[in-house]
Write a structure and sequence with these properties.
By secondary structure, the chain is α/β, with parallel strands linked by helices. The protein has ten helices and eight strands. It has one domain: Rossmann fold (3-Layer(aba) Sandwich), CATH 3.40.50.150. The longest helix has 26 residues.
Length: about 270
């Protein structure tokens, strides 16, 4: 079977949708969508869309006269996003592409969402510039970006447990690597954005159990799972024990609820 005809591995994407979306992303996506309020008929791009929770929520606002497109570099999440929206009666497009080279014309979109994606871009300035290129003059960027590691207790627990085992936790730290508000404003300004609004929001991530959180972070996380994979087999049980111990104070009736902080950026070209 030629490489282009091989089935796409969606194992990681399915774990992401099953655990990470309801546990960590749905709440924050609703918050950003509420802030930016897409309009009927809007042309919307969901950049670094994952399995498409942002695009799916935006479609409710853009309606049948709008157009919502999701883009992600990972073919697995694009395949899952496509499956989730098949037969829904809502036309949506899904494309696998690098966020720094998106195949759309200049001034195409009224709104670009980038939900917890900018911190992962290889070149953040280029990512901001590419988004600006595709926005109409009246368009808007709406992005969410996790705050500092110590304000995101789940990520913090994973990083601490990895480092106690002598594992390089760099991949797990990337989610919170763009947390300084001044850096965010500066990057948006240098890319040509104006009318920059940046607010910091505290909230709660809600998983059905600590096990769901662990499964999400170790199997479905786009970055953290790579750090976890560096654990020696002999250290895995101790890693899991430490994560559970650190998160146990945030468990009630079996469910895990822990505080998280995110920045919400809204800017115009």
């Amino acid at each position: 079977m030629s490489p282009e005809n091989q089935p796409i591995d969606t194992t990681t994407a399915e774990a992401y949708e099953r655990h990470m979306v309801p546990g960590m992303f749905a709440h924050w996506t609703e918050l950003v969508i509420g802030v930016v309020a897409p309009q009927p008929g809007d042309q919307v791009l969901d950049m670094a869309c994952g399995t498409g929770i942002g695009a799916r929520m935006a479609t409710r606002f853009a309606g049948p006269t709008g157009n919502v497109i999701g883009v992600d570099i990972d073919p697995g999440v694009i395949e899952v996003a496509r499956r989730l929206t098949q037969g829904t009666g809502t036309p949506m497009e899904w494309h696998c592409a690098d966020a720094l080279q998106v195949p759309f014309k200049d001034a195409t979109f009224d709104l670009c969402l980038c939900l917890q994606g900018l911190q992962f871009f290889k070149d953040r300035h280029a990512g901001f510039a590419e988004i600006r290129r595709m926005l109409k003059p009246s368009g808007r960027l709406a992005a969410s970006i996790w705050g500092p590691l110590e304000y995101n207790i789940g990520h913090y627990a994973v990083v601490q447990a990895l480092e106690s085992q002598g594992v390089d936790a760099s991949a797990a730290k990337r989610a919170c690597s763009f947390s300084n508000p001044d850096d965010i404003r500066d990057a948006a300004t240098r890319a040509g954005f104006s009318r920059i609004q940046l607010r910091t929001e505290d909230g709660v991530s809600h998983f059905t159990s600590i096990q769901s959180f662990i499964d999400g972070m170790t199997q479905g996380s786009p970055s953290t799972r790579h750090a976890v994979a560096l654990l020696p087999e002999s250290g895995r049980d101790e890693f899991l024990k430490q994560v559970r111990m650190m998160l146990e104070p945030h468990v009630a009736s079996g469910e895990l609820r822990y505080p998280m902080r995110t920045h919400v950026l809204v800017a115009q070209p």
